[in-house]
Amino acid sequence: MPERHPTTGAILAFLAATFFGISGVVAGGVFDTVEPTYVAQARSIIAAVLLLLYAWWRKALRPGPGIWRLVLLGLNLATVNVTFYWAIDRLGVGPGATVQFLAPVLVLIWLAAVRKEPIAVVAWVASVVAVLGIGLVTEAWTMDSSDLIGVASGLVSAFLFASYLVYGEYLGERYRPATVASWGFVFASVFWAIVLPWWTFPFEDAGTVWLGLIVVGIVGTAIPFILDFFALAMTSSGIVGIIATLEPPIAAFLAAVFLDQQLGAIQWLGIFLVAGAVAVVQWRGLGAEHETTSIV
After folding, report:
1. Does residue 275 sit in helix, strand or coil?
2. Given a cut of 50, is residue 85 above it in pLDDT?
3. Closest CA to 158 of 207, 86, 212
């Protein structure tokens, strides 16, 4: 298992956020053809295959005792993805992403309330500023009408994302990251095979977007999740969570560069707010009991 190394962990978390952002740009049109639940199923299967090969290469396939912990992770991975997809499908990318990225604030609340760890005021302020910045980048106020199911999906996704960060840090103390990631997506795929039998998958409709699904499965799932699990084994889930808020700004920036989607002044302000919040947390850390991650 990796040693605790906060600077390396922060760098890996940043790379994970970058890959997640890239996949969001590449796979932006998949929902027009394939329903969110089937997209979540496809990405889990593709990621599971790739991660199993990686774990086999790293000689990390044997989970050892306590495999039920990895079953719980698989359920989390399956449900956090689909609830996020439901949120952005019903609310739009902006509002849906903003609701999910309440997760870093929830992680800090858990660290303070449950683990009784002192969290610096600057970390609380940075987490709130990061969420506000995401709202500006994604233009969360563009939601035309209230969709209770969409809002509920986003809140559930935020809770699941927060629990994924905390639980991922816990698993990182007991298993190798390759073991966690591969078996996590194996059990996520088993979950989807039960809920959505493979013969119900819309293969004919998906034929036109298979490249997008493969990109989402590899670039947007397998690679960033293995990076995240390495990061969670090296540094605090609170730090990884706040760095994860860079994902929507990265996606917005890449869309502006490669898809010629223009960003307004408010969106650029949001990007700077999120980047600044992450830089502050890297520099100052979460509190006295947490290491700093000075990569800026």
Report:
1. helix
2. yes
3. 86
The answer as to whether 18 is a domain residue is: yes
Judge whether 185 and 47 are in contact, CB under 8 Å.
yes
Q: And the tokens for 286? A: 């979460």
Give pLDDT, residue 286: 65
Residue 295 counted as domain residue:
no
Q: DSSP letter string over 165-206? A: HHHHHHHHTTS-HHHHHHHHHHHHHHHHHHHS-GGGS-HHHH
CA 168 distance to own-chain centroid: 12
Residue type (1 letter), 47: A
Domain range spanning residue 29? Answer: 6-284
- DSSP per-residue letters across 66-102: -THHHHHHHHHHHHHHHHHHHHHHHH-HHHHHHHHTT
Mean pLDDT, residues 71-100: 82
The answer to whether residue 11 sits within a structural domain is yes
Give domain status of residue 294, yes or no: no
Residue 293: what pLDDT? 46
Task: State the total domains in the chain.
Answer: 1
Evaluate whether 92 touches 142 at the Cβ level (below 8 Å). Answer: yes
